[in-house]
Amino acid sequence: QVLKRIPRSKFNAQNIGMVAWAFGTLGNRVVPRDAMASIAAKVRRDNLAAQADCQAVSNIAWAFAQMGYKDRVLMAILSARLQTDGFLQTCSPQALASTTWAFADLRVRDELLMAAIADHIMADGGMPTGSPQSVSMIAGAFAILRIRNEPLLALLGDRIIETPGFIETFQAQDVATTAWAYATLGVVHQPLVAALSRRVKAPGYLATFDATQLADTAWALVQLHIRDPDLMDRVAARALEPGLLGTAHAHVLVRLTEAYTGMGILHRELM
Are 135 and 163 in contact (CB under 8 A)? Predict the structure, then answer.
């Protein structure tokens, strides 16, 4: 019923943003792709982006990424809205991170937008109120798009290590995404790398990692010049726990193997 009403509805930008968010949450097993096409058409026809606030833009972009529906015209419209003077300053860290990640997830490499986002974050002091998830998502988005902005990554790294207690709140996905981003872009922030390594070695922490997070983190730390046999022994112990690697994709196993070969370690039981 919602799908039928969208084209002729009087929904404003915020309404459409919430509908898109709901569709993205339900996923493409429930929501037909026609629903996303209808939302994109509504945004274009009624020029809804011009009245959208940052949360609405974020909801729409995030939903299209969740659904894997790439509408280049819609993303260009959202990009233009985001680059309106003063608009990024109205975004919460979570909205900004979700939006940036959405562009990356859809492989929309909008360099002007990414430069504007980086400039905003740097002017703001490195997302001082951003959560670990928000900070790691920003770094991850730049890495997915292979946009190497060293000043931004240096500032985010400083923010992570200089905020008291901040890295201790990083969950497994935050560590994996952050480490993978810096390694992928070839940016070695030594204090950050050391802090991530210490976080991984915290008692019981590796037990929270799934196979992909474990492989990405181990590979990334090796790429970032960590040489810590004790850390790799702990990674191997986690990897060898029953059921962890049994359903892992081939690329996860390859990445984990690369981590050990990169450090010159032959772990016979794991291999």
Answer: no
pLDDT in tens, 175-188: 999 999 999 999 99
DSSP 8-class letter at 234 = H
57's tokens: 């833009």
* Residue found under tokens 């690329």: 251
Segment 79-108, tens digit of pLDDT = 999 999 999 999 999 999 999 999 999 999
**Please, are residues 124 and 160 in contact by the beta-carbon 8 Å criterion?**
no
Exposure letters 156-169 (e unless 16+ CB within 10 A, then b)? bbebbbeeeebbee
Measure Cα distances from 125 to 95, 149, 158, 226, 263 in Å.
17, 15, 10, 28, 35
221, 182 contact by CB (below 8 A): no
Residue 210 class from Cβ within 10 Å (0-12 exposed, 13-18 middle, 19+ buried)?
middle
Cβ neighbour number for residue 197 with a 10 Å cutoff: 17
Q: Which of 237, 227, 238, 235 is nearest to 263 (CA)?
A: 227
Phi and psi for 128 in degrees, rounded to 5? -60, -25
| Location of structure tokens 């730390």 | 221
Number of CB atoms found within 10 A of residue 90's CB: 12
Give the burial class of 72: count Cβ atoms within 10 A of its Cβ; 0-12 exposed, 13-18 middle, 19 or more buried. Answer: exposed
CA angle 240, 242, 245 (to 5 degrees): 65
The model carries a pTM of 0.91
Q: Which residues contact 143 (CB under 8 A, 6 or more apart)?
A: 180, 181, 182, 184, 185
